[in-house]
């Protein structure tokens, strides 16, 4: 004669612990400093297409307007991106604690300086996030000779201004290129080399 075994039931406390573990794991995944995997192609979105390079682009006329970003910079000055309309703007989200950010910093320093020296109509702006100390951020800028200002946003509040579903900077590092009307033309969620960075900027600079 076989005996049937009653199914095991998870206690309410066990279920609560499991849900807590899943929640914490998910939060760690979302807030981790992103590596190259974040830039894998994902096909197309509502108004943009992501290529094999991991760079997403939006056609002129289908772009979402970027929110104005304003506040104190790492060097203690103030900046408002709304005043930059009429120029192509490169927004780079970074943290001094983020290895991919350190890896791409020399490319940003070089390309931004070369474009400025050439008189190109483009402005670079950094957004420094999750750095608890301005000193760490300032040391990063000094180490890599970053020639442009960065908004100091330790709580990431500025990034929350971007509308959901748009080409928003939801990883660290992230880079956005805004057209002369202040709309998001391109985005990547992965660290960039010099050639990739130029490939994002040049088509937007060429627009009439």
UniProtKB/TrEMBL annotation:
<dbReference type="InterPro" id="IPR013766">
    <property type="entry name" value="Thioredoxin_domain"/>
</dbReference>
<dbReference type="InterPro" id="IPR036249">
    <property type="entry name" value="Thioredoxin-like_sf"/>
</dbReference>
<dbReference type="InterPro" id="IPR017937">
    <property type="entry name" value="Thioredoxin_CS"/>
</dbReference>
<keyword id="KW-0201">Cytochrome c-type biogenesis</keyword>
<feature type="domain" description="Thioredoxin">
    <location>
        <begin position="60"/>
        <end position="206"/>
    </location>
</feature>
<keyword id="KW-1015">Disulfide bond</keyword>
<protein>
    <submittedName>
        <fullName>TlpA family protein disulfide reductase</fullName>
    </submittedName>
</protein>
<dbReference type="InterPro" id="IPR013740">
    <property type="entry name" value="Redoxin"/>
</dbReference>
<keyword id="KW-0676">Redox-active center</keyword>
<dbReference type="InterPro" id="IPR050553">
    <property type="entry name" value="Thioredoxin_ResA/DsbE_sf"/>
</dbReference>
<keyword id="KW-0812">Transmembrane</keyword>
<dbReference type="Pfam" id="PF08534">
    <property type="entry name" value="Redoxin"/>
</dbReference>
<keyword id="KW-0735">Signal-anchor</keyword>
<feature type="region of interest" description="Disordered">
    <location>
        <begin position="33"/>
        <end position="73"/>
    </location>
</feature>
């Amino acid at each position: 004669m076989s005996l049937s075994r009653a199914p095991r039931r998870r206690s309410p406390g066990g279920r609560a612990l499991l849900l807590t573990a899943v929640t914490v794991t998910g939060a760690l995944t979302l807030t981790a400093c992103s590596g190259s995997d974040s830039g894998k192609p994902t096909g197309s979105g509502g108004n943009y297409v992501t290529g094999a390079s991991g760079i997403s682009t939006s056609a002129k006329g289908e772009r979402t307007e970027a929110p104005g970003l304003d506040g104190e910079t790492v060097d203690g000055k103030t900046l408002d991106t709304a005043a930059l309309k009429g120029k192509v703007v490169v927004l780079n989200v970074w943290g001094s604690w983020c290895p991919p950010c350190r890896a791409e910093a020399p490319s940003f320093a070089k390309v931004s300086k070369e474009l400025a020296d050439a008189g190109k109509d483009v402005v670079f702006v950094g957004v420094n996030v999750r750095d608890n100390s301005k000193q760490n951020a300032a040391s990063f800028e000094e180490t890599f000779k970053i020639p442009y200002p960065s908004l100091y946003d330790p709580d990431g509040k500025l990034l929350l201004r971007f509308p959901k579903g748009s080409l928003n900077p939801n990883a660290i590092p992230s880079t956005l290129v805004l057209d002369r009307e202040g709309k998001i033309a391109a985005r990547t969620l992965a660290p960039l080399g010099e050639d990739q960075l130029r490939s994002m900027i040049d088509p937007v600079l060429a627009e009439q």
